[in-house]
Amino acid sequence: MNNVLRKNYPELGEVKAPYVHSVKHGGTLYISGLTAFGTVAQHKGIAEQAEEIFCQIRKIISAEGSDFSALIKVTIFITSFKEIDELRKVLYRNYGDHLPASSLVEVSRLFSPDLSIEIEAIFGL
Description:
Layout: E1 4-7, E2 22-25, E3 28-34, H1 46-63, E4 71-78, H2 84-95, E5 101-106, E6 117-124
Parallel strand pairs: 4-5
Antiparallel strand pairs: 1-2, 2-3, 3-6, 4-6
Helix pairs in contact: 1-2
């Protein structure tokens, strides 16, 4: 498994749990579940939180020398479908013409009560 690269990105803040921001294996980049925790969007609606998460994903994928055209799959966890229309607008805006395979799962809560969305992503490099 010497072709596995685990990486944190200082611009995303310090990781205080047993995980890394991303793992690269071969030509695939796996991005851990990201939230708006610790950002100005943390206490806002799902659209603002999602935009913050996509900003974080862009920082990671840019640091890896790629962009959203390499997006393969996302898994999105939300705490309520009440703001789904606002979320869809954010998703279309960020994906552009590069629609990924996707899963959308409603969960009872995330690790902080003011978070309403967490997104994992997989990119081909």
